[in-house]
Amino acid sequence: MTNFFSTLNIMLVLFMGVASLLLSNKVNLIPFVPTQFGYGGVVRGATSSFFGYIGFDEICCISGEAINPTRDIPRAILITLLVVT
User: Fold this and answer.
1) How many CB atoms are located within 10 Å of the residue 2 CB?
2) Rounded to the nearest 10 degrees, how much is the dihedral formed by the CA atoms of 24, 81, 56, 63?
3) Which of 64, 62, 53, 59 is CA-nearest to residue 79?
4) What pTM, to 2 d.p., does this model score?
5) What are phi and psi of 67, to 5 degrees?
6) Whole-number Å distance between alpha carbons of 52 and 44
7) Mean pLDDT of 46-74
């Protein structure tokens, strides 16, 4: 069963990737980097997203060791999402 679902997961990811490339509107890619933000703005946005994801992942992993997980895990996730947003 694990092999079946792993294969299904990989096939779905590949399908979504190929379908998005085929169905995307190429006009939306010009200009690739918006002039009002520039390359610096793109890098700042990427780093914010990356560190936000890492923080969210860290909270989810560490919260399994909480004293009262049914109360603390939802709070930790919501607070992390609020801070990142």
Assistant:
1) 6
2) -140
3) 59
4) 0.45
5) -70, -45
6) 12
7) 79
